[in-house]
Design a protein that fits this description.
mainly alpha; flat
């Protein structure tokens, strides 16, 4: 199966490569599967590949896989793609990735899409901000719990 997936990853002019990347990720950690490093490397290469025939949906899928893996390169890549891409699907994927991995400093970057002229980006932007705010609240709760359990002596 791994050989078939690796072969499908070469098919960049259709959504086949993105689908293969999803399959690759679903086999992560299995004895007959793929390592997280291999998946992340493949996803990063797919997301950043400059082949003109590269199917844009593959880039969006690759960015989402990187974000789910919490790959350290994903946040900056998402910011770059949001800034540089003209493709709505890529921008939406980038906004979602920023929501998964970003911090409060990233909210202004996506706030402009909440009320922007491109209506298809409004909902992803709203959801991304909610996710970031949720992460912030969770981090505060963990810090408060740690402080309380240490008797205020951290």
């Amino acid at each position: 199966m791994a050989a078939a997936i690796r072969e499908a990853l070469k098919e960049r002019s259709t959504s086949m490569a993105g689908t293969a990347l999803i399959a690759m990720n679903s086999l992560k950690g299995r004895p007959d599967g793929f390592s997280e490093d291999e998946i992340a490397s493949t996803a990063y290469e797919m997301a950043t590949g400059g082949e003109p025939e590269s199917f844009q949906l593959n880039k969006a899928t690759a960015l989402q896989i990187l974000a789910m893996l919490k790959d350290k390169r994903a946040l900056q890549l998402a910011k770059d793609l949001l800034r540089d891409s003209k493709e709505i699907g890529i921008k939406a994927s980038a906004i979602c990735a920023i929501g998964m991995l970003g911090s409060k400093e990233d909210i202004p970057l996506i706030e402009k899409y909440v009320k922007g002229t491109e209506t298809r980006l409004r909902m992803p932007a709203k959801q991304a901000i909610k996710k970031i705010e949720s992460h912030m609240q969770a981090a505060t709760a963990v810090a408060d719990t740690s402080l309380a359990s240490s008797g205020g002596n951290l």
